[in-house]
TrEMBL record:
<dbReference type="InterPro" id="IPR036770">
    <property type="entry name" value="Ankyrin_rpt-contain_sf"/>
</dbReference>
<feature type="repeat" description="ANK">
    <location>
        <begin position="56"/>
        <end position="88"/>
    </location>
</feature>
<dbReference type="InterPro" id="IPR050776">
    <property type="entry name" value="Ank_Repeat/CDKN_Inhibitor"/>
</dbReference>
<keyword id="KW-0677">Repeat</keyword>
<dbReference type="Pfam" id="PF12796">
    <property type="entry name" value="Ank_2"/>
</dbReference>
<protein>
    <submittedName>
        <fullName>Uncharacterized protein</fullName>
    </submittedName>
</protein>
<keyword id="KW-0040">ANK repeat</keyword>
<dbReference type="InterPro" id="IPR002110">
    <property type="entry name" value="Ankyrin_rpt"/>
</dbReference>
<dbReference type="GO" id="GO:0005634">
    <property type="term" value="C:nucleus"/>
</dbReference>
Length: 112
């Protein structure tokens, strides 16, 4: 998958573009198990989109935490995402992980 993304980026794919929900490719990739792709995309867009917010104020970390993707959360943290950002309802990514019962994600976000 990373090779395909590399090809798309080289031919003009902009990983920072957003859809009608203001979510980027980073948001959606953070919910998947395509960890190499997430790492690759974060290297391409850097700080520009790692803390990008969708229409609900959710960042890629919110997306990853809400579906229990511990590895995605680790990658996002490694790239410098801010875990203190709250969505439009005042919830952090850790709050979402706690709400959905993802203990590993809660522990990760509390220790970092």
């Amino acid at each position: 998958m990373t090779d395909l993304l590399r090809t798309y980026v080289c031919t003009g794919l902009n990983p920072t573009e957003t859809d009608i929900h203001a979510a980027s490719l980073i948001h959606y990739t953070s919910t998947s198990e395509m960890f190499d792709a997430l790492d690759f995309l974060l290297k391409q867009c850097g700080d520009e989109c790692i803390n990008g917010r969708d229409k609900n104020g959710s960042t890629p970390l919110h997306y990853a935490a809400s579906v229990g993707r511990t590895k995605s959360c680790e990658i996002l943290l490694k790239h410098g995402c801010k875990k203190s950002i709250k969505d439009n309802q005042g919830r952090t990514a850790c709050d979402l992980a706690m709400m959905f019962g993802y203990v590993d994600v809660v522990e990760l976000l509390r220790e970092n």
